[in-house]
Amino acid sequence: MRIDISVLVTDADDHVLLVHPGTGTRWRLPAATHTDTHPLGQIPTRALAAETDLHRPVTTILTIDHTPAADDDADGEEHVVLVCDGGRLTSTEREAAAVPDSATTVTKVRWIPFGFVGDYVTDTEETRIHTAYHAQTHGTLPLRLGAGASS
């Protein structure tokens, strides 16, 4: 089973930060796949920095999505997607989002109004974004990554 970690970053005007992988027409949240190279708790922070040049601690999971084998995944592999909270940025903070020179997985970053994310992402990604956005704006019982027990 594959574990993917995505990061939802929003701004004060209800825009969502999306990245484009350089192929195809669909955008996505900043993301990475878990490997044994780094502890799970470090992956969302690293993924966000690698794809958007935003350096922020990411420690809270907003939603967990499970895709059974052979559903809508192109490789037919069962996987779990953890969508983590990258925070709500001020207009000044959001200007720092850019594709780093060292990026290998994305070619563009863009702030999309929340109500229009469905025009840019797959239906599955849109559902993840809406679920995570609801958790981010209405509160959750956080599961802390790498920080010990929740308080």
TrEMBL record:
Protein source organism: Streptomyces clavuligerus
Highest taxon of the lineage: Bacteria
GO molecular function: hydrolase activity
Annotated protein name in UniProt: NUDIX hydrolase
Protein keywords: Hydrolase, Plasmid
